[in-house]
């Protein structure tokens, strides 16, 4: 992973670009020694980005959008350097402005821009499932279409990874990538699986299940409440090989450089420590922002495996595929297992006749010799919004087909051949544009990091300014889980909303009301939480305040049940108005009757079902 922009990176040390010691490993330092002037200045600027010591107890008392934006730019003058992102959003993603939809629920990387969907010749793609063995796929390769080759080359460049060092396979989604790797990893010999996740992760759970089925041992990092920092001593103990004289094969260490739920950032040196102690490293890059793979630390460090995901268009359609990178020098580690159906091919989209779509679903249900599989179609315009089908022979013996079946088959192949000839003659594959990736490249790591850093920290500070009126102890409306105002926090905020009595409002209810106000948020569950240096009574009280039935007893300090939270995720296309609208929406919960008013509002619209 050699970075092409080392000079640029020297200006961006706020985003893990420079080596930093592991938390808990070096000698202890005083707060004065650990807080650099730049961090202190940033925290001070953030306090002034809204209004120093401001407290708002009524949503109608919030300052206006224009005033807030002006004040934010005064506090963060470098934000003006990121205006290119606003121009790109206006030119290529007009649907975000015209629909007035605030999209704060996207992770991954967008391949295309919305404008491309307005042109019928835009080369969007389909995915075709295939049954193949991962080990065979990466060691012997497989014939692929030109379209898939072009996508691979573009993704390698975007991720700042060399195709000389890594193989790349496409999977149906993120969970499939974890499952494919887990099923092929030799847990029978390297028996340990160690993960670092502060939240419930379905994709990682598939890997855990696969490990346990083969009698592997599963361990996980734990996190302090409520800042969600890694318990460094515990994680170090799990990583370090006790018997240093024996070079024992430890297993697989699965590590995200930052939490995609709380925004907590972790030092990449954890991976280095694990590697020194015999672990294979799988870097989960799904929570990283655009261009984060070009940070200096990752440019120098090469994990054995890397997982990420890509989707179509930001704010329009999140369907896409997962990517599993495998270091070529580690290919021999993987075992020759049974074929997997989680691997896919990426093919160029084409418009199929509607009768074939209908017949395909009928044939699939009859277990015929010819199986027609429907594939999720990702097309360049509404006129191409139809499904593609793959005809695949199954079984060695062939049965006699009816005349109508033969006719459908022959017509299908005739049209497929015709379309292939048209594509070849037009040279459409040579004109593939990945504008979504191009836009991120054109802005670059430094400006993207700057923009996201200002927006996410402004929101954290603004949330802290909301307090319930007339509450005895000045109850805060919003509780944030994970880091507060920090230079190096990730591009996501995990939070919950509380009423004037201090009781948590159900996160799914908040998410639903946000959706009705055209704001898309995500939902997650915090896990692996530990209460350090707190009495049993304090632990019980904290759990009760979260609205959970306490699972704690005098012998436990770990919270077994998860804590549901709401997530707001940022990327380089997020603008200040998006952030302000979220703040303004959440402030409406300062009105004790807000939820009830929303209930009556939708009843007045003659809705038959009211789920508020």
Global mean pLDDT: 78
The CATH superfamily of the largest domain is identified as Type I PLP-dependent aspartate aminotransferase-like (Major domain)
CATH level-3 fold name of the largest domain: Aspartate Aminotransferase, domain 2
Shape: globular
Distance between the termini: 49 Å
Structural class: alpha/beta
Runs with pLDDT <50, length 5+?
Answer: 2-37, 352-430, 552-556
Strand content: 15-25%
Q: How many strands, what sense, and barrel or not for the largest sheet?
A: 10 strands, mixed
Q: What's the architecture of the largest domain, going by CATH?
A: 3-Layer(aba) Sandwich
Q: What is the CATH level 1 assignment of the largest domain?
A: Alpha Beta
Count of structural domains = 3
Question: What is the helix tally?
Answer: 20
Estimated helix fraction: 25-40%
Counted beta strands: 21
Rounded Rg: 26 Å
Topology:
Elements: H1 6-9, H2 31-34, H3 37-48, H4 65-75, H5 83-92, H6 94-98, E1 102-103, E2 109-112, E3 125-129, H7 134-140, H8 146-158, E4 166-171, H9 174-184, E5 192-195, H10 202-213, E6 217-220, E7 223-224, H11 232-239, E8 251-256, H12 269-276, E9 279-284, H13 296-300, E10 305-313, E11 317-327, E12 343-348, H14 354-365, E13 370-375, E14 388-393, H15 403-426, H16 435-464, E15 478-481, E16 492-497, H17 507-516, E17 519-520, E18 522-526, E19 529-530, H18 536-545, E20 558-559, E21 563-569, H19 576-587, H20 594-604
Parallel strand pairs: 1-17, 2-10, 5-6, 5-8, 7-19, 8-9, 9-10
Antiparallel strand pairs: 3-12, 4-11, 4-12, 10-11, 13-14, 15-16, 16-21, 18-21, 19-20
Helix pairs in contact: 9-10, 16-19
